[in-house]
Amino acid sequence: MFDALAERLESAWKTLRGQDKITETNIQEALREVRRALLEADVNLQVAKDFIETVRQRAIGAEVIAGVRPDQQFIKIVYDALVEIMGESYSPLAQADPSPTIILMAGLQGTGKTTAAAKLALHLRKENRRALLVATDVYRPAAIDQLVTLGKQIDVPVFELGTEANPVEIAQRGVAHAKALGVDTVIIDTAGRLQIDTEMMAELAAIKDAVQPHETLLVVDAMTGQEAANLTRAFHEQVGITGAILTKLDGDTRGGAALSVRQVSGQPIKFIGVGEKVEALQPFYPDRLASRILGMGDVLTLVEKAQEEVDLADAEKMSRKILEAQFDFDDFLKQMRLLRNMGSLAGIMKLIPGMNKVSSEQLQQGEVQLKRAEAMINSMTREERRNPELLAGSPSRRQRVAKGSGYQVADVSKLVSDFQRMRSLMQQMGQGQFGMPGMPMMP
Ligand code: GDP
C-alpha cells in the first residue's frame, strides 16, 4: 500500500537534493510535488491544501541544521506534519469502568463493518477482554447470519432478535444481555446503506442515544479515496464519532483516506483492516504509516513482528553464536523458518528502509533461493549442519548432499561458501540480534 505516494514523493526530495538550503524558490517545486503526490493518492483537496500550507510555513521558517541536507530536513518536516495530521500516537479503545464498554459500529454497507466488528472482538480477546457481538441490521437477514457465523468462528457470543425486532431495542437488550453474561465489552453492529441516507443516520443516532456508547467507530473503506472526507464529515456531524477503522488497506488503495479522516473529524483512526480474515486487524500507528508513506520503511513494525516470534533468550544465544562465529546451518535453518513465519520475504523486505525498491522478481528469486537452501540443509547430516567446515573440506560430502536434495554439486558448494562468507560478515557486524541471514544471499 501507499507505494504510489511514496514514489511520487521521491521526486519531491530530488528537487531539493543538492541544494544547500531551503529557500522560497526551491521549495516551490518540492511542495508542488508533495501536493501532486497527495492528490494522486486520493487525499481530499482541502486536506491536501491545508497540509501543504503547514509544510510551507514550517519549511521556510526552519533553521537549516548543520550537517543535514535540505532534502533530509524537508522530509523530516513533511514526516512530522503527516504524523500530526494522522493523530500523533496510537489511540487505544476506551475501557469503561464499570464495564461493559459499549462500542457502536457505524458505516456504509460493504465497507467491512460486520467483519470489523468480529475482528475487534478477536483483538479484544487477545487483550483478555471478552466481548458480546450484537446484530441490529434487521434489514438484511444475511448480515445477521454473517455475524453469527463469524461469532462461531472466533468463539464469541452473538446476540440477535431476528429481523422483526426494532434495532434500538435489540441494542438495549444486547447491552443488558452482556451484563448478565458478565462480558466486559459490547460491540454493536448496525445497518449500513449504500449511500449516506437520513433514515440510516436517524437510526444510528437513536441507538447511540439509547445505549450511550463509549466508542462510536466509523468504518471507512480505504478504497473510497476522496469520498472518505465527505463520509466522515456526514457521520461526525450527524451522529458523532470517537474514532475510525480504516479497512481494506491491504488492497490496491492509494491510502489518502487515512489523512482525510482525522483532519475532517478530529478523531483518530484506531485500527486498520488488512485482509478478509478475522485476524487481519492492526492497531493504527500514525508515525509508522507516515514513514511508510515517505518510503522510509517501517522498521518498528518489523522489529515488533520479529519480537513476537523470537524468544529473547533465544535471540541472545543467537547473537552470542554470531559473535563467536559459532552460527551453524541449524541456526540458519531456524532463522529462515522464522523469516517465513513472519510472512513472505516480500512483505518483510518492504518494511526495511531502502529495501522497498527491490523488484518483485528479485524477491521471488530470493524466496526460491531460501527454499533451495532449506532443501540442501535438510539433506545434511547433523554433524555437517553443526560444522559447515566439514562440507567445505569434502567434495564427497557435498556430492552426497547434492544427490539427496536433488540439486547440483555446484549449488551445494555455493551454499557452503555463501554461508561462510555470510558468517564472517555477520561476525563483523557483530550485532545480528534478529539476524537476517537470508539477506547476503539475495540475488
Ligand atoms: P459490511 O456490509 O460493512 O458489514 O461489510 P462486510 O463486513 O460484509 O465486508 C464486505 C466485504 O469486504 C467482505 O467481502 C469482506 O470480506 C471484505 N473485507 C472486509 N474488511 C476487509 C479488509 O480489511 N480487507 C479486505 N481485502 N477485504 C475486507
TrEMBL record:
Q: Does the keyword Cytoplasm apply?
A: yes
Keywords from the named record: Cytoplasm, GTP-binding, Hydrolase, Nucleotide-binding, Ribonucleoprotein, RNA-binding, Signal recognition particle
Q: Which GO terms describe its biological process?
A: SRP-dependent cotranslational protein targeting to membrane
Q: Which Gene3D superfamilies match?
A: P-loop containing nucleotide triphosphate hydrolases, Signal recognition particle SRP54, nucleotide-binding domain, Signal recognition particle, SRP54 subunit, M-domain
Which InterPro entries does this UniProt record tie to the protein?
AAA+_ATPase, P-loop_NTPase, Signal_recog_part_SRP54_M_sf, Signal_recog_particl_SRP54_hlx, Signal_recog_particle_SRP54_M, SRP, SRP54, SRP54_GTPase_dom
Binding of GTP occurs at 107-114, 189-193, 247-250
Location comes to: Cytoplasm
EC number, UniProt record: 3.6.5.4
Q: Please give the residue ranges the record annotates as the region Disordered.
A: 383-404
Q: Where is the SRP54-type proteins GTP-binding domain?
A: 268-281
Q: What does it catalyze? A: GTP + H2O = GDP + phosphate + H(+)
Q: Which CDD domains match?
A: SRP_G (cd18539)
Which Pfam families does the record match to this protein?
SRP54, SRP54_N, SRP_SPB
GO molecular function per UniProt: 7S RNA binding; GTP binding; GTPase activity
One Gene Ontology cellular component annotation held by this UniProt entry: signal recognition particle
Quaternary structure and interacting proteins, as annotated: Part of the signal recognition particle protein translocation system, which is composed of SRP and FtsY.
According to its UniProt record, which protein family does this protein belong to? Answer: Belongs to the GTP-binding SRP family. SRP54 subfamily.
Role description: Involved in targeting and insertion of nascent membrane proteins into the cytoplasmic membrane. Binds to the hydrophobic signal sequence of the ribosome-nascent chain (RNC) as it emerges from the ribosomes. The SRP-RNC complex is then targeted to the cytoplasmic membrane where it interacts with the SRP receptor FtsY.
Record-given protein name: Signal recognition particle protein
Species this chain originates from: Parathermosynechococcus lividus PCC 6715
Q: Lineage of the source organism?
A: Bacteria, Bacillati, Cyanobacteriota, Cyanophyceae, Acaryochloridales
